Amino acid sequence: MSAPDKRIGQAGVAEGWDDAPCGLLRLDADGLVLAANTTLLDLLGYERSAVVGRLRFVDLLTTASRMFFEAQLAPMLLLEGRLQEVMLDLSTVARQRVPVLVNAIRVTATGTAEAGKAAVIRLALMSVPDRRAYENELRAAREQAEQARAAENRGRLRLEFLARANAALVGTSEVDVLLDDLARVLVPEMADWCLIYAADAETAASGPPLSAVHADPRRQPQLARLAGLLPEALRPSPAARVALDRGQPVLYVRLTDGQLLQSTDSAEVRRLYDVLGASSAIVIPSRARGVRAATIIVVRGADRDPFHTDDLHDLADLGARAGIAIDNAQQHAREHGNSIALQQALLTSPPTGPDLDIVTRYLPATAGNAVGGDWYDAFRQSDGTLMLVIGDVVGHDIHAAAAMGQLRGVIRAVGYIAGRTPAAILSQADQTARGLGVTTLATAVVAQIEPRPGGALLRWSNAGHPPPLIVGAEGGARTLASTPEPILGFDPDLKRHDQEVALAPDDVLVLYTDGLVETVDDDLEVGIARLANQLCTPGTASQVSLDELSDRALTEHREGRRDDIALLLYRAAIPPNPAVLTTGRPERAHPSASRGS
Amino acid sequence: MDDVLARNNVHQSGQPTGQPMLFAHGYGCDQAMWRFVTPMFEPDYRVVVFDHVGFGGSDLSAWNAQRYSNLSAYAEDLLELIGALDLHDVIYVGHSVAAMIGVLAANREPARFAHLVLVGPSARYLDDPQHDYSGGFSRPDIDDLLHTLEGNPLGWAASMAPVMMGNPQRPELSAELTASFCRTDPAVAATFARATFLSDNRADLSRVQTPCLVLQCSDDVIAPDSVGEFVHAHLPVSEFVHLRATGHCPNLSAPEETAPTIKAYLHRHSRPDADVGAG
Fold it and tell me: If you count Cβ atoms within 10 Å of the first and of the last residue's Cβ in chain B, which end, N or C, has fewer?
């Protein structure tokens, strides 16, 4: 096949053309082969006569190389007049692929750059079978490096994710907040949406959904609807049921329509799956102390890669830790609830009477376990004199609540005896508590109301408690400051002092605990001034009900209380019949009669 | 508006108040594809050429693989460009895959377009034996093409890319780019190749309300006769001209045949009121 071809000589090819150490081609402007050297023909297995004047260059290429040449190389050749270092695949007679490295130039007969038909194209083609293999090796190595880097990156992202999840789990002791934080760590990073159901640890029954978060806020209402329908509508397969009961997570790599349909009878649920996007899911039963604490459902839509077993392991791990955190939070919530129940059982209602205007409030702390220390009390002495008490036991737990109950009982008992003034009651309570082994410390204010002509006399003694406030009938508010005296339980032999002030009709006495006047920087004075300000009602104080005043005082404390709050408001009555009062001492045995009712 | 014009490296010539002719390059090169054709229309038309994002002198920082993985993104860009220049009554000339990009754009906003000139169009490059359709290529061919592209940076050094990506307006880089045609980031080329050769726009043809001219080359391995005839047969209003020019790029290899063919078509279809309107 390397027989000499006269046309070479006719085409004016230089010596050495045929046996050049690379393939050589000459084409006309349309790509038709005008000449081909022996090296190339040998490489392709073609007879010269089958190629020259018959085939175009692109006919010698594989399909892909032909596309590449026509779309990208032909324009370059026309525009720039040359191609350099192009890798193409030739196709032999036997359809074998031969990789070649090609250089080409396009020259016109006159040497001008005009795109005319007179141009010829010359190509040099170097067979490079090993280079292709080498390039493939390089490419494989690069891909491997990229995969390793991607894996490393994934590993780092996983660690960061787990660290964020951990932070969410230890960040709060409240179940709602905890589950919400956890959901927001999972979505959108890990999943498109997620549902977390808390289970009551004692019954292991799924409770209401405690957290439902979708990456797309617009889908939140639909997710909330789905959360309400699940898990009643959900019917895991028997195998999944067993796994879940054993505390093992279940991975649905592809939620086929069949699986979705099988899992529920509800057309509404299926429609919501559609809207929310559900193509891959993991269900994690989160356990603590051997029982279910929560069920976490994370779902990805079709736009994302499906969940992988790596995700399953991460989430299983996370689920185990979430279970402990949720269990702790639930335990905490139960204790908190117990403390509040105990507290409220201990706080009895104030006495009532036709002209007796008293309002009491107690708000437990919302943050942490701060509960139990504060109390209010209102009772009559044996002669009918009205006694008002506010107090705060040091400590914020169920023990503080119990101590408060004892101390409150002591003050009631020693205070019931007619003739004892607030200072005497507090001193007596100090000694009695010490004698009975009640070792708690507490602050308290004890106040005594004695009706007087034109109003009443307020007598009080303060054991280290924030000063009471008086909201005047005309609307101004003032604090009842006094020389500070130590708290209860500090020194039983301490001499305490009574203070007195006249109350005009409709004056309101405000007794409160420090939770009401706490400020960010714990400046009690500022807090008290602010409270006084909130209660001021210039001109119309007498028309404002005590309930309304209480609400006003508590407005800012509806949420996020660090401490509990006790509050007692008393409004001085319209002066009783002056004739009865001229004696100077009221008829204590019959207080109701003394009020002229 | 300037954003779009810079993004797509828009260049205008010809008659500022003339009917707009918009020339779109196809897969494999850039607006340089039209350099021998547009001069013949400049005396009568407002000529607009541009580069698709990722190609030629376009703003490479506007490119991302996800957005430009299907043809509709290019059609959107095209409509933005037409909107930015406020072009109406557009004669759109699209080569290769830009023919279908024009079809998509004209279907979305038919009111903008007067004519579509489709040079070497294909509504689907892959064979579809189920529907007895021969596009010319198989899926392994396309995969092989993507490999070929990967092995051919064509002078595109990876180290160059970040410099140009970050400095679309740097004059010395622009100069370098205009001196070398059809230089494309292999990643961009591969994405466009995938978008092009895996596209299927057969269903879009019947919805075209704009009159079309189909120009079919001889011996076009990328868009063979049967493919061009399919396009012509499925367009509601079209004329079909078979060029003597061979290969896939008659706009470069045979401008002296391509431009007059388009011109003749436009003259046949010029509106009787066109001169009145211009006066």
Answer: C
